[in-house]
Amino acid sequence: AQPTNFPTPPPTTAQPTSTPTTDAPTTNTGFALLAQYDFNLGAPKCSAVGRACTSGDTLLDGKQGMNELNPPNTLDSCTDGNYGSYHSDESIDMISIKTLDGGQLQAGKTVEIEAKVWAWSNGSYDMADFYYSANPTAAYPTWTQLASLRPPYGGLNTFKVEYSLPDNSDLQAVRVNFRFLGQQSACSGGSYDDVDDLVFAVATRGALVAISPQKPPTHIAPPEAFDSGVCAPLDRKRCQAEAASDLCEWQNGKNRARGKNGKNRGCYAKEN
What we know:
By secondary structure, the protein is an all-beta fold. It has 1 helix and 13 strands; from the N terminus they run βββββββββββαββ. Helices cover 1% and strands 30% of the residues. The longest helix has 4 residues, at 236-239. The protein starts with 31 loop residues before the first strand and ends with a strand.
């Protein structure tokens, strides 16, 4: 072959690819997250940080023995009562938590708990106790009381309670204890009661965010205590429930019409 006057072109090399991509972190300030049941904790949990976390419409709907999935949905040994029927008697149907400013759940921020509950009768016999915990993975979480609210009517009620997220834990929880009569408690344990927890991730100092100091919870005056005026309308089962035992007693005579002191069969205020 005859030599050519043209030099051999230089070898070509592959052009560098564009900047490599990485998966976005799971934490996203723009999302309201739907909790998933955590079998290790025994309660619904949002593992990533969002602007809100909710149990949704199904995870907590009802209570143990009446529609609820994975009962009792609590972090400790607290359980639901075994009396009642679905959407006739007491139950917690949904719990959610969200920031007021639309940003991520972050230590020091003011947040709002929302709970949907089903109240028995006209609602005046029930009470919802709200708590939060900064150590939900402990064997016995510490519950700090926020408020106790009485339903204004029977059936579906929605409660909202605000507080400031503590900054000493990146995993926190809220609890609603919904009870028939009884005393304020994180675990009242009454026959008609329902208790549920919601666990959620929180951005803390380790997440390189500006942390606001935690504010003490806003004081909410508790409703007036239940008194013996609640006794008369109660049927025998509720009158004899432990929650009513300090206030009420059932009268039932031999003839099943009159009890002691000549009273008609029924529920009466307990005599001291």
